[in-house]
Amino acid sequence: MMNKSWIFVILTCLAELVWVYGFNTAIVWWHWVLVVGVILIDFYFLSKACENLPTGTVYAIFAGVGTVGTSVMDVYLFGGSINLGKIIFISLIVLGVIGLKLADNKDENKKVMKGAA
Fold first, then answer.
1. Contacts of 82 (CB under 8 A, 6+ apart)
2. What pLDDT was estimated at residue 100?
3. Burial code of 71-88, b = ≥16 C-beta within 10 A, e = fewer?
């Protein structure tokens, strides 16, 4: 069951990148309908991933992939620029998400240890 949950994590990350792309390319009303549809599918995948995995883990991965993926799309698909400052701040966001997850794990481990005692 855990492996299936990781597939939902991958799907939610991919769907997030699709709707972000749609935000940048939608020009007529039906494009926006598709974008909203992908967002709803994305939330479904996100909720399914959280059924068997810790929400903090799922969100940390979701946010990290979204941050890096959106930045890469901006540069390669939309002609955005990249510089040292952007790289540093994107890295800080990713490190912050990882740090939050690590701190969350410590709290979860303490709860488990208290429950076992």
1. 71, 75
2. 77
3. beebeeeeeeeeeeeeee
Q: Which residues lie below 8 Å from residue 93, measured CB to CB, with a gap of 6+?
A: 63, 64, 67
Task: Centre a 10 Å sphere on the Cβ of residue 64 and count the other Cβ atoms it contains.
Answer: 19
Name the residue type at position 69: G
The reported pTM is 0.77
Q: Residue 44's pLDDT band (boundaries 50, 70, 90)? A: very high
Whole-number Å distance between alpha carbons of 51 and 107: 20
Count CA within 13 A, CB hemisphere, residue 22: 18
Contact status, residue 89 vs residue 71, Cβ threshold 8 Å: no
Calculate mean pLDDT across residues 26-36: 96
Q: CA 56: distance to chain centroid?
A: 11
